[in-house]
């Protein structure tokens, strides 16, 4: 059973035969991808050329010249007999049609691939734009809510007036406190001066008594030349 199963897997229509197919990043895959790209561009160029009016005009001129030459020219110069129904011309046109159809289909497939890539890019761009739009919408809603919570001009004026009144009251209280402190300092200075005045007067009254004591005359036995307060040894 395993042999038959392996045989079925190996010989399936969707299984590659032979060796492993090189990827696009490898050398063989890169060469094959480059060849396919060149062939695709070449086929698209042919398909675009066949889809122009000049191709139809040239093909019509070619067929007319072929028919006229093989009909009017002398018999030895004819290469496609009219009696045989212009067999060579029929084969040429059939060959051209048989090659034109696959080339046109290949060009259409490449165009479909480009359209698919473009559609994917457009989808991603649309998703980014949608995300940006949703973000901006949320920001606008948040700004509206914040603006609703902001006070208006009347409220601001009332707040400013109350702040000015509080500031004026605090300034008035500070001025009163400064005036009271100055008055208290003046009263303390006056009290200190009044307390110091009796002591100064007493000191002034005691000073003359000391001078009188020093300048008092000596007794009858004292030396008149002796100075008051001098040492007796110095006088001797």
UniProtKB/TrEMBL annotation:
It comes from the Bacteria. Keywords: Coiled coil, Membrane, Transmembrane, Transmembrane helix. InterPro entries: DUF1003. Residues 176-208, 215-236 have a biased composition (Low complexity). Residues 9-36, 175-236 are annotated as: Disordered. Residues 109-173 form a coiled coil. It holds the Pfam family DUF1003. The keyword Iron does not apply. The chain crosses the membrane at residues 51-69, 81-106. This is DUF1003 domain-containing protein. The lineage of its organism: Bacteria, Bacillati, Actinomycetota, Actinomycetes, Micrococcales.
């Amino acid at each position: 059973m395993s042999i038959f199963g392996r045989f079925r897997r190996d010989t399936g229509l969707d299984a590659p035969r032979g060796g492993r197919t090189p990827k696009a990043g490898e050398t063989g895959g890169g060469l094959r991808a480059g060849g396919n790209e060149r062939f695709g561009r070449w086929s698209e160029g042919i398909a675009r050329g066949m889809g122009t009016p000049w191709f139809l005009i040239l093909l019509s001129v070619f067929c007319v010249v072929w028919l006229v030459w093989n009909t009017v020219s002398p018999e030895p110069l004819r290469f496609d007999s009219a009696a045989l129904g212009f067999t060579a011309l029929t084969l040429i046109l059939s060959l051209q049609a048989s090659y034109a159809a696959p080339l046109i289909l290949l060009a259409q497939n490449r165009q479909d691939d480009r359209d698919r890539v473009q559609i994917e890019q457009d989808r991603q761009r649309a998703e980014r734009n949608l995300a940006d739009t949703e973000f901006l919408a949320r920001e606008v809603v948040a700004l509206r809510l914040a603006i609703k919570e902001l006070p208006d001009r009347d409220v601001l004026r009332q707040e400013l007036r109350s702040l000015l009144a509080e500031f004026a009251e605090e300034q008035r209280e500070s001025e009163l406190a400064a005036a009271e402190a100055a008055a208290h300092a003046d009263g303390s200075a006056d009290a200190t001066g009044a307390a110091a005045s009796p002591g100064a007067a007493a000191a002034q009254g005691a000073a003359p008594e000391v001078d009188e004591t020093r300048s008092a005359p000596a007794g009858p036995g004292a030396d008149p030349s002796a100075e008051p307060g001098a040492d007796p040894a110095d006088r001797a």
